[in-house]
Amino acid sequence: MPSTEFLKAKFHAALPFDDYVATGKPNHRDAWVSFFERVSLTPAQTELIGGFQRKLYILISSGTWCGDCVQQCPIFRRFELANPEKVTLRMVDRDEHADLAEQIKLCGGLRVPVVMILNEDFDLLSMMGDRSLNRYRALAAKQLGAACPVPGAAVPDEEVASTVQDWAEELERAHLMARLSTKLRERHGD
Fold it and tell me: For residue 134, what pLDDT band results from cuts at 50, 70 and 90?
């Protein structure tokens, strides 16, 4: 598991969402932008994230070429936009940051995206990837086996909504962990 100092350094070396997307090939960038435009938060999700009281840093190991990244990472940009004072997103390319990728392997592989949610001290609160539960359910219903959709592949609206909800719940879980942290409660007097 990566150390707090290592995660802090990686976070500071990472790119904001738009800058990260801009590093991709034109067809990949178009897919990211197109999917971002499809992602929206419900009023309840916006209110939930807008009410966060603890600072959360989201660090994602990704690939601009990856269909699963295209179909999930823009969700985190929406979360950041819902509360930019408390949610900060940064992204790294998995291959350019192989030292991080090696430490966050899932199922023995270099998967993407891998989402790490960190508190204000860069302590790891959550690490999850490469797909949320509803995303896995949808893919399993379509096909079983190792397959990664190409960037821009069609995704039904209900699948997008259920994936947004999965990730919103994970972000809420991490926020509550930070909110109830003894050291952070003592620091903030709450």
Answer: confident
Q: What confidence score (pLDDT) does residue 114 get? A: 98
State the CB neighbour count (10 A cutoff) for residue 19.
11
- Give the residue carrying structure tokens 């985190």: 76
User: Would you state the CATH architecture of domain 4-188?
Assistant: 3-Layer(aba) Sandwich (3.40)
Q: Measured between alpha carbons, how far is residue 129 from residues 28, 41, 69, 126 in Å?
A: 20, 20, 10, 10
Task: Quickly list DSSP for the chain.
Answer: ---HHHHHHHHHHSB-HHHHHTTS-HHHHHHHHHHHHH----HHHHHHHHT--S-EEEEEEE-TT-HHHHTTHHHHHHHHHH-TTTEEEEEEETTTTHHHHHHT-BTTB--S-EEEEE-TT--EEEEEES--HHHHHHHHHH--SS--PPTT----HHHHHHHHHHHHHHHHHHHHHHHT-HHHHHHHT-
Distance in angstroms (rounded) separating the CA atoms of residues 190 and 9? 29
Q: What is the pLDDT of residues 161-190, one digit of tens each?
A: 999 999 999 999 999 999 999 999 999 999
pLDDT, tens digit, 9 for 90 and up, residues 116-130: 999 999 999 999 999
Asked if 41 and 116 count as a contact pair (C-beta separation under 8 A), the reply is no
